[in-house]
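Obj: model holo form, ligand = pyridoxal-5'-phosphate.
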Amino acid sequence: MRIETQCLHEGYHPGNGEPSALPIYQSTTYRYDSTEHIGKLFDLTAAGHMYSRISNPTVAAVEEKIAAMEGGVGALCTTSGQAATMISLMNILKEGDHFISTASIYGGTINLFAVTLKRFGIECTFVDQELPEEEIQKMFKPNTKAVFGETIANPALSVLDIEKWAAIAHNNNVPLIVDNTFPTPYLCRPFEFGADIVVHSTSKYMDGHAVQMGGVIVDSGNFDWKNGNFPEFTEPDESYHGIVYTESFEKAAYITKARVQMMRDMGAYPTANAAFLLNLGLETLPVRMDRHCSNALKVAKYFKKSEKVEFVNYPGLEGDKYHELANKYLPLGTCGVISLSIEGSRENAIKFMDSLKLASNEVHVADIRTCVLHPASSTHRQLTDEQLAAAGITPGLIRFSVGLENVEDIIEDIEQALATLNLDAKPYTV
Ligand SMILES: *Cc1c(COP(=O)(O)O)cnc(C)c1O
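Output (holo structure tokens):
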């Protein structure tokens, strides 16, 4: 099946007379014929649902669909994108370990890596993703266990050179984990370029309608956990009567360990109802993404022509710094998100945003409705203008997430909001 067909038919296969739509199995609990069978479930020697903190039939159907869409051997849904990122790393790392992440990633992920994981004794080095391979190689240490990057960074909109980063990770015998939230598996499948693990915030385009938080981890099945660097995969797990993940689960060792060990202990598994809503979004993902991309390209071109706009970042735009990488990794389109800077001041950016009538101010992105956010007065509010510049965020930077409205309406809204700006009265200079 091609991906459009997978979105509708993978994961749930109704039999004669059964419901066409995915049923919601609203049950925490499962019933068995014998104590012996339950014992086998706890030893992981029999397959089956045990308790809805670890698996549930509705969630499992969605996991199977997403694994197929990404081309992986298995997936694990989580209650948020943050939980997916955290568990993807905690499944590999322990106190005293180190990992490398590209620097232009989602702000919430930076907090997790730089502050919270550090409190647990896990150290992260942030690296400029454009550095040449030899420079990046110098950041590796004997205890480096993983490399992390974002296919299209939120909000910088830089495109990750996945093949380059996979090669660097593999030369050092560690996996590459890629956050593929902005493109979704419809526009990019990082496993085809050598990534080992993919994570998503499904709260964005995959859900698509801004109704359900969620995340997912997908395992390519390609990484060699037996290379000597990852004893937790090759040595007995005492919490499961000495099971060895690489022996019992082979290619699915990583994703099985993430579920039965990490999810069992951390408890961030979504409900059946949450998975049902995510599935509704997935069914229409390809058509929505096509429209997000075509609308965003038109809006990006409009911004590019305006003299009131200092710069526009959109990898789909010819002449964009990341256009070539976008052509390679994202041939069908990049996503619906644009970042741009209004000429002059922070005040001009705010005035522009507050003058928009159709596009709404939201702390959300990748929504079905057009929405905008001003990082300098929200997510990065505590930074000075100098600190913002160091983070690649100009005082006037706006994250503009193009929705599925008629693009003429979106552009007319932008036009009237830009018209309110008087740029001759420049109150601010960098
Ligand atoms: C939103 C987002 C996350 C975090 O996901 P939540 O579902 O909000 O927890 C992670 N990565 C990227 C790229 C995001 O945009």
